[in-house]
Write a structure and sequence with these properties.
Radius of gyration: 20 Å
Structural class: mainly alpha
Number of helices: 10
Shape: elongated
Number of domains: 1
Number of strands: 0
Order of helices and strands: HHHHHHHHHH
């Protein structure tokens, strides 16, 4: 009976996509809660107000980076969901684990914003990028092994999705290692990777597009 239940459980791909959209929407909204206006009683001039806004710089940067991160992962997950013929219980739980890492993004963002000069904070933030990436790779590998991917998905597309995750995570890891030189170097490198995938995704995909054709 238990085996039969597991065979019929969690096969609705649309419900999983709807849950994912809701989780991402909440996580993206929570990011902005750490942006607080300067205390009114501490502002007595235009100069002090400008200084107060300037002090928000690190938090604004972290907000921008994390919003990009969540947008990239939302696109990555939706790409996979669109290629699934169906899902099963185990694949659903992989994506639930993926969503659990997404809900941690507001915490790791605030942690890095508060302790931007510390390597530990940077490594915690990078870990919050690595884990969802690893789970997306596990998800796609599982779907391929268990014939959950649509039959009309071409071989080039199947390999391109795996390759994109590996390349992105390798670049993020390289950026994280720069924290041993300085955390600001790491933040700059990670931001450049994010901007590439958000604004110019064709660059890492040039070879992949050719292979798909």
């Amino acid at each position: 009976m238990r085996t039969l239940y597991n065979q019929i459980a969690n096969q609705n791909r649309e419900r999983l996509a709807a849950l994912s959209d809701g989780v991402f929407a909440v996580a993206m909204t929570l990011l902005v809660l750490d942006l607080r206006l300067p205390a009114l009683e501490a502002i007595h001039s235009e100069h002090e107000l400008a200084h107060g806004l300037l002090m928000l710089g690190p938090k604004l940067l972290m907000y921008f980076m994390s919003f990009l991160t969540l947008g990239i992962f939302w696109n990555g997950q939706q790409t996979q969901l669109n290629q699934f013929e169906r899902v099963d219980r185990d694949l659903s739980w992989i994506h639930l684990a993926f969503l659990a890492t997404i809900t941690l993004m507001p915490f790791s963002t605030q942690f890095l914003a508060e302790f931007i000069a510390y390597r530990m904070a940077l490594l915690v933030y990078w870990l919050n990028i690595f884990l969802p990436g690893a789970l997306l790779f596990i998800s796609w590998s599982y779907a391929l092994r268990h014939d959950l991917v649509r039959e009309d998905t071409r071989d080039g597309v199947r390999s391109a999705i795996c390759r994109r995750v590996v390349i992105a995570q390798s670049l993020y890891a390289g950026g994280a290692l720069l924290c041993f030189i300085g955390t600001r170097w790491s933040i700059a490198a990670i931001l450049l990777v994010q901007l590439n995938y958000a604004l110019a995704p064709q660059l890492p995909w040039i070879k992949e597009k050719r292979s798909v054709r």
